[in-house]
Recover the amino acids of this structure.
């Protein structure tokens, strides 16, 4: 008998009818003899509606109260799903994050899970109940206040519960039926992956793929919880996220996909003295302003004046703030210039295969060059190549690379088939 | 420095704007130097909307899950009021019933408060915060499940908290600005009472007055918590409910009002053998069917056949069920007949004054008789006379009695002025 954790997002739960369909699916899993634990996000637009109400009573609401307010959403959806399950003849109990033993840091609105002590859930499972656990929330041990977990919080709740309960799998349901080699809306012949390693999924999440949040994949990898990405609208098995990229035999290592991200801006600080301390000072200022940095590049300094340039990317929404800050620092300091560009797009090729196969970088650059697309910046990891191009070239870049590495259509792309790194 | 508990009902909280007005009122009380604890019901129609959603997923939802669902409503309103308070510069903390230490029986949907251990609220008050506590809910110690308290639950929560915190007063806010000598919509010159004793308020609540729930007044009387019935739309002081009818000096004892109730039906079981056991069997059957009985009358048996008749009233919605049950028992047993009448109205005169002044009953009956209104049934307590009349005569009965006992207009009615019992 397996223990299965399922997670359903807001759009899978947006009406009474959808809730009943989800309940049927849950009962089906139980009927197959599994212990079933389900984590539900708030229904449809509930969280947005609550945020809107809050803004009407106070434009800058206290964070503790915001968490008390928002957690009502998951309370509603989980109890409704439990009721729907009961109408199909099975028994279910819903629990808040606190009742399920999700212990977090104190940081309201963006708390981190410290541990999960799911005693009450385990007891209820042993009594034969299906357990619903409110996602996106927990409790802080010191203050005893309810907390919410920030973006991707429900996915993280599900994975954390799965780890604590030693589940066999954690199924993440949304309106997407798996992880694809590229966004199917841009690349019509993108293929659904049967399986992908944790590290490759991490890279995907980090460079723009919207399917799973980075923190959720990190948690799954750390605790070795297999994830299955499935659609709540079909019975397709979806994509299994499991295993380490280290364990993939060289000859089976492939490229898993092309991800893209159009949400970033590029900031370059030109002419920083190449001495200790300058870069640190700049990054500390950016961090204190709570601006999240993605890519960072510093190339070797120019011999002539021992200065170097540092480029980083960040969300476009934070761009103006970053520029304001850096321009001020430039006026006070020794840099030559600060430039800004929010018409960039990032395209990334991901896969265990590139570790062991020479020629991938060359093929990558050649493919874009042949398409007349200029690469403005390159940054890589062991299993990823990311480049910045003009945002207007982004979608074509995705298609070009997807084709160049034969990721589409019937055949599974094999890196060693005619390419090299 | 006083400790004030305030309770706001759903209609006082039905929009963001109303919530901000309520928050202003709360902050005003705090500014006067009071410790302030506020109990909020769910906003406007929230509870009904949640019930509707529940019915869509399961027509017979499990009670435990219904309580998990409905308690979301109070969570939302209390956190929003806390946010609004913060926008006016004061600090507030919201708590669930469970967090505030409201311990209840296990009975989901209709739990009874066993005790209140408001340690966390007391701590927060000592730190200078205004405390919001979700009404209508608590927690059961054994199961650790959340429970709801049934009708009037938020009023009861407020009174129970006031008792546990030794509050100076518990203010109940609604869209009604006090307790009147009769329903002002029926009796235009009805007067607002400045004060009323616990027992008189109990009788008012018991016989149809909709202002306060019976259980809430009982709790206040048992724990000696002064109540103030006020409007959330004005600054009028409202009506103070306090003191025992025993403590009212004879010469000050007055009549406090005329209440009416058009929601009941009358059931008469004719020809019950006047022996031990028959009435008990009938009432046990009615109780097991969860039919609430209000008035009960049994007069002396007829000498001829040693049989008697028993009449009781119950909510009209339960009438058909009661009749079905009793007709079955009649067929199996020894009664002569069972009759039903749902065109009755109940009118009641209430006041400490009738204890010590002869002639009130006579005046009562004469007044109705002169108006051509037939009294079909009489039942009294020490401080109340209730009669059943035709429902079509009900409103006129209220006016007739209100006039007969000079309860209207400028002068306060004094029983000893020209009337006797």
């Amino acid at each position: 008998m397996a223990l299965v954790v399922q997670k359903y997002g807001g759009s899978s739960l947006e009406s009474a009818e959808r809730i009943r369909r989800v309940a049927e699916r849950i009962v089906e899993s139980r009927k197959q003899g599994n212990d079933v634990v389900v984590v539900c996000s708030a229904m449809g637009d509930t969280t947005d509606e609550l945020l809107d109400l809050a803004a009407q009573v106070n434009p800058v609401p206290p964070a503790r109260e915001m968490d008390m307010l928002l957690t009502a959403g998951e309370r509603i959806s989980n109890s409704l799903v439990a009721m729907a399950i009961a109408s199909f003849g099975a028994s279910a109990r819903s629990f808040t994050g606190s009742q399920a033993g999700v212990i977090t840091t104190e940081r309201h609105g963006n708390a981190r899970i410290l541990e999960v002590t799911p005693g009450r859930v385990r007891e209820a499972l042993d009594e034969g109940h299906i357990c619903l656990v409110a996602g996106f929330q927990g409790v802080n041990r010191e203050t005893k206040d309810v907390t919410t977990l920030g973006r991707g919080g429900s996915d993280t709740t599900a994975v954390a519960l799965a780890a604590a309960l030693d589940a066999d799998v954690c199924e993440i349901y949304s309106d997407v039926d798996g992880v694809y080699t590229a966004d199917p809306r841009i690349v019509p012949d993108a293929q659904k992956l049967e399986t992908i390693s944790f590290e490759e999924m991490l890279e995907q999440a980090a460079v723009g793929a919207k399917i799973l949040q980075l923190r959720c994949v990190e948690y799954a990898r750390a605790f070795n919880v297999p994830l299955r990405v499935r659609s709540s609208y079909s019975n397709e098995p979806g994509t299994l996220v499991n295993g380490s990229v280290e364990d993939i035999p060289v000859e089976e290592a492939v490229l898993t996909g092309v991800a893209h991200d159009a949400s970033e801006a590029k900031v370059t600080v030109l002419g920083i003295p190449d001495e200790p301390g300058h870069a640190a000072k700049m990054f500390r200022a950016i961090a204190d302003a709570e601006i999240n940095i993605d890519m960072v590049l510093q190339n070797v300094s120019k011999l002539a004046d021992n200065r170097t340039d540092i480029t980083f990317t960040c969300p476009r929404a934070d761009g103006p703030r970053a520029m304001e800050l850096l321009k001020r620092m430039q006026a006070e300091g020794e840099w030559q210039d600060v430039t800004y560009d929010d018409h960039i797009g990032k395209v990334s090729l991901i896969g265990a295969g590139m570790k062991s196969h020479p020629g991938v970088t060359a093929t990558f650059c050649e493919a874009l060059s042949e398409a007349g697309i200029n690469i403005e910046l390159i940054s890589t990891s062991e299993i990823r190549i990311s480049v910045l191009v003009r945002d207007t070239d982004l979608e074509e870049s995705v298609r070009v690379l997807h084709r160049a590495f034969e990721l589409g259509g019937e055949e599974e792309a094999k890196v060693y088939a005619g390419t090299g790194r």
Notes: The CA atoms of residues 155 and 216 of chain B lie 6 Å apart. The longest helix of chain B spans residues 63-87. The mean pLDDT of chain B is 90.
